[in-house]
Each structure stands twice: as structure tokens, then as C-alpha cells.
Amino acid sequence: MSEFQLIDQNVLRAAFSSAMSKMYRDEVPAYGTLMDLVAEVNVKRLAKDTSLANSLLATDGLNRISDERHGAIRVGTEAELKMIRRVFALLGMYPVGYYDLSVAGIPVHSTAFRPLGQEALSHNPFRVFTSLLRLDLINDNNLQIQAENVLAKRHIFSGAAVKLIEKAENEGGVSIPDSEHFIREILKTFKWHTQANVTHELYNKLHDAHRLIADIVSFKGPHINHLTPRTLDIDQVQDLMPSRSINPKAVIEGPPKRKCPILLRQTSFKAIEEDVDFTDVKNGKHTARFGEIEQRGAALTPKGRALYDRLLNKTRDKCTPAADGSNAQDYINTLNQVFVEFPDDWKTLHTEKLAYFSYQATKKDLAKADTNLSFDELIEAGVIRFDPIIYEDFLPVSAAGIFQSNLGDKEAANIAQNSNQDLFENQLGAKVLDEFEHYAKIEAASKKACLEQLQF
Ligand code: OOG
Ligand code: NI
Prior knowledge:
Mean pLDDT: 91
Shape: globular
CATH superfamily: Uncharacterised protein PF07063, DUF1338
CATH topology: 2,3-Dihydroxybiphenyl 1,2-Dioxygenase, domain 1
Radius of gyration: 23 Å
Largest sheet: 5 strands, mixed
Bound molecules: 2-oxoadipic acid, nickel (II) ion
Strand content: 15-25%
Low-confidence stretches: none
């Protein structure tokens, strides 16, 4: 076949993410309202803050600022997870990081499938936080077997999807003529199903064991449970949500509001109640799907991350945010006070190597005298500029907070802490990648390119 051509994975991922967005807006109208609010606030923020606009222009490009940055799914079995990994690989998304949610009483462990290199991330950074149910953490043996039986019978990918996946793997990628069909078939896996797979009685039992188990086991597939656009001003969107009849969770997860944003701040609106028909009874209800927003800042080095973790733990030791929001202001005050210790200017974050940066030469022709300067002196002299590398991953404590705010107040079940990355990697059929390694690589590559540009 001389005409045979593969589609660029970045293009395919962008098309997939936009198809998913459209589907989710149709399924959850409140999510569309949130997207509109995010876009409005972003436009206003950019008009006010030219230095932010310039920095985005220098690094990220200003296009698609308000587009989805991530979604989340929850799968039921090892076989489902393996298949998901194969699909995401075709979209240029690879598993980065291991997140153990059992520490927060949530019976799943997770990874984030995401693009890796700077080019792929800039083209389209869409990632999917993917959790696998851990029935091994449920005490009721009988219920465990019932859940396993239900899961064993379902096929989350259509026959056509499986054929297209296998064909693409054999051909080294998805072909241009197959690409639309591929997206259409893959999307079906993440669609909402009003028709449940279980009786009302079994649903209730699963729900009583843990609401998340009912969400994962009772349906035909791993419906997308939220999508998350990027906001440039999360505090403002959080404040404005009620004016659009959206009910936000009590506190924003992650670091406090800062001059120099770090890592990831997130908030969501409470999950909506949806109609479901059980196999025996109609007119049931299920609550699982929601909308979220995120504001991303600098990726931290292991040193910066250790400081973040220490300060977050210190904050939560002093004040643990209550699920009902009753101590929200107390928590925010404590967070602000404790995080005073985290430097909040780019220069210090850079010299103390707390965050990762990308470098760019600002002057093509060096003055003769400049050629003897060290890299740091070139920065000092304004020959090289540095911008933070954006954090592309997730935060376990924040993820637990997002899960919990959508599971109701009483769901911090008593599950023994049971982190098991080896088990997860077996279930995934691959090792998860180390997030720090990838930021370090991006930083090193930009440093090299910058020096080459200056002809050292
Ligand atoms: C995933 C929750 C985690 C995030 O943004 O931290 C997450 C889920 O609810 O399935 O998406
Ligand atoms: Ni999320």
C-alpha cells in the first residue's frame, strides 16, 4: 500500500480529547457551564496580567488555554487496565507515577496516562487519571466474588475497537483513514450508560461496601467521571461557581494561592445525581460524575517536592479539612501561614533548585565579554531567560480530596494502608515512569538547546 500513512499521535490525541469534551458536555450540562466560566475568567485574567500572557506565549503558546487538561476513569479488572494502556499508547499517552489512594480509605490505586516530551505536551497535554479497583481491600468475601463475576462478563471495548487497536499495533500506529473510526469506537468505552449491569439489591450492597465500588462494578464500562479544563485564576472561578448555580467543594486542593504558582491547585463541583435503570428495577439513582478545574504551576524538583510534602503535612496536622466545609476558612488560613516558608519568587526557586525551569537565549549575538560567563552569570546578565516548567502530574493528597468530595462525607472507609506498586505494575503489564526524570530531561534539553543557540 503506497498511500499508507499514519496519523500523528499528537493530532490523534487532540481529536480524542476534543471528542471526549463534546460528549461530556452533552452528558453533563453543568460541565459545559463550568467550561464557559473558565474561558471567561481566563480571558479577563490575560487582559490584566501581561507578564503572565508573555510567559505563556514564551512557553505554552496561548492557544487552547481553557481546553481540558485531564479526565479520570476507574476500571474494574487487570485485563481492562492492560487494554486501556494499549489504547492510550496509540494516543501517545504513557503511565507516569503510582498513586496509592488506599491511604485515604479509597479502594483503588492509580497512574496518570500522559504525553511525555515537551513537543507532545505543548501540542496537546491531555492526560487521564486512571484508577484500578482493589477488591482485595474489601473484607466481604462473598461480595468480592459477586463483583468479580459481574466484571468478568463485561467487555468495555466494542468488537470494532479491539480490531482497530490490534490493526494499529501491527501497523505501528493508527492510519489516517482509520482515525475517525478509531476515535468513535474508543469513545464508546467512556460513555455514560443509564442501564446498569446489576440488580438494585447488588448495587446497594456494593454501594454500602464503598460508593466507589458501586460506580466501578455496576455499569457496562468506565464512564469518564470528570474532565478538567485549565484555569488561570482558580480562586476566582471557585468564587464565581455559585453564581452559575454550580456547587463547589469546600476548599481548593493543593498549595495556597501564591505569586509564583507551584504544582497543581484543583477544585471541583459536587457530583450530580443521575437516573439509572437496574436490571430488575427502573428509576434508580447514581451519583458519581462531576466537573473539575485545575491551575498548574511549576514542577518541583525532589527537593522542592519534599518541602511541599512537609508543609502540607504540617498544615493538615494542625487542621484537617472537614468534608462538610465547616472549617474551610481555618484550613485556608493555616495553609497560608505554614506555606510562608516556601520561597515565592522565581529567582529563589531557581537558585535553590526547588523547581524545574526551561531556558531560552534572549540575545542571539553575544558581546565578546559575555563568552566567558558561566551559565548562571549569563542568566544574571539577562542573556538567558528562564521560565518554570509546568507540572504535568497529580498530587495524591489532592486526588484523595477530589475523590472524597464526590463520595459524600462518610466515605473515609477503614482500609488498611496497603501501597502496592509492584502489584499495580503487574496489573498494568508495564512499569510506571518516574515523573522527576521527565522534568529533568526537559530541563536538560532546553539548557543544551539554549547553549547551542548561543554557540558555546
Ligand atoms: C480521580 C480523582 C483524582 C485528580 O484530579 O486528582 C483526580 C477520580 O475521581 O476517579 O482526577
Ligand atoms: Ni481530576
